[in-house]
Amino acid sequence: MTEKVFITGASGFIGYHLVHAAIEAGMEVHAAVRPTSDLTFLKKLQTASQQLVFVNTDFSSKESLRTQLEKGGYSYIIHAAGVTKAKSAAAYNLVNAEYSLNLAQAAMSADIPLKRFVFLSSLAAIGPLAYSEQQPITEETLPVPVTDYGKSKLLAEKYLEEVSGLPLSIIRPTAVYGPGEKDLFVLFKTLSKGLDAYIGNGPQRLSFVYVKDLVTATMAALTENQKEVTVYNISDGQSYDRYALADRFREISGKPVFRAHLPMFLVKIMAGFLDMIYAFSSATPVLNREKLKELTASNWICSIEAARSNLHYQPQYDLRQGLTETLTWYKENNWL
Question: How confident is the model at residue 1 (pLDDT cuts 50, 70, 90)?
Answer without folding.
Answer: low
